[in-house]
Amino acid sequence: MNSVIHKAETRGFANHGWLQSNHTFSFANYHNPDRMHFGVLRVLNDDVVTAGMGFGTHPHDNMEIISIPLEGDLEHKDSMGNVAIIKEGDVQVLSAGTGITHSEYNKNKDRKVKFLQIWVFPKERNLEPRYDQISIRDIAKENKFYQILSPNQDDQGVWINQDAWFHLGKFEKGKSDEYKLKKDGNGVYAFIIDGEVEINGTQLSKRDGMGIWDTDSIHVTATNDARVLLMEVPMSL
């Protein structure tokens, strides 16, 4: 087993006034040659958007973009004609393919929006762009990881153009679960949304990240109440 640990305080940080963003991997003005990506996982941004503000219309291509709101409501509009609100308990994916434009705004006037913005390199390039959004409230489980994303259209969760599987878990202190990898050659990046956990003997706290590869499974134990996002991705680009 191989692993890498990214403590919360070592992430890049940008304060744009209306946006505060912590970057696990190199992004925009934050460049760290040792933190470019984890396999095909290219971006993991922890964003906070001020009330009434947001990202104006901008382009993307050949990237799988996943948004996971943690608090508040975010309005999405794109060049495919999609207009939607995503909020805590939702997962959104934008397969940019040959190219799209979109905007994301905090429509609330009285509170911030907090969400994770995740970019994954696609398995195939220049496919037709696609949008998908689901509520995960009905599939959420206590003290166990449950799937929110996969490469399969008919599987649980949203689907993307990559051999990747994402799982969420909300654990009470002392509870644990084992995650078994789905595909040879993949690794898992664990991001601690809240609380404290121990993963394969390593203690991690809120907003810490840990990448693990060359293993068949990982074991997660909550040393305090915790929420954990697991992102299984191919390690080769």
TrEMBL record:
<dbReference type="InterPro" id="IPR003829">
    <property type="entry name" value="Pirin_N_dom"/>
</dbReference>
<feature type="binding site">
    <location>
        <position position="60"/>
    </location>
    <ligand>
        <name>Fe cation</name>
    </ligand>
</feature>
<feature type="binding site">
    <location>
        <position position="102"/>
    </location>
    <ligand>
        <name>Fe cation</name>
    </ligand>
</feature>
<dbReference type="InterPro" id="IPR014710">
    <property type="entry name" value="RmlC-like_jellyroll"/>
</dbReference>
<feature type="domain" description="Pirin N-terminal">
    <location>
        <begin position="11"/>
        <end position="120"/>
    </location>
</feature>
<keyword id="KW-0479">Metal-binding</keyword>
<dbReference type="Pfam" id="PF17954">
    <property type="entry name" value="Pirin_C_2"/>
</dbReference>
<feature type="domain" description="Quercetin 2,3-dioxygenase C-terminal cupin">
    <location>
        <begin position="148"/>
        <end position="233"/>
    </location>
</feature>
<dbReference type="InterPro" id="IPR011051">
    <property type="entry name" value="RmlC_Cupin_sf"/>
</dbReference>
<dbReference type="Pfam" id="PF02678">
    <property type="entry name" value="Pirin"/>
</dbReference>
<dbReference type="InterPro" id="IPR012093">
    <property type="entry name" value="Pirin"/>
</dbReference>
<dbReference type="GO" id="GO:0046872">
    <property type="term" value="F:metal ion binding"/>
</dbReference>
<feature type="binding site">
    <location>
        <position position="104"/>
    </location>
    <ligand>
        <name>Fe cation</name>
    </ligand>
</feature>
<comment type="similarity">
    <text>Belongs to the pirin family.</text>
</comment>
<feature type="binding site">
    <location>
        <position position="58"/>
    </location>
    <ligand>
        <name>Fe cation</name>
    </ligand>
</feature>
<protein>
    <submittedName>
        <fullName>Pirin family protein</fullName>
    </submittedName>
</protein>
<dbReference type="InterPro" id="IPR041602">
    <property type="entry name" value="Quercetinase_C"/>
</dbReference>
<keyword id="KW-0408">Iron</keyword>
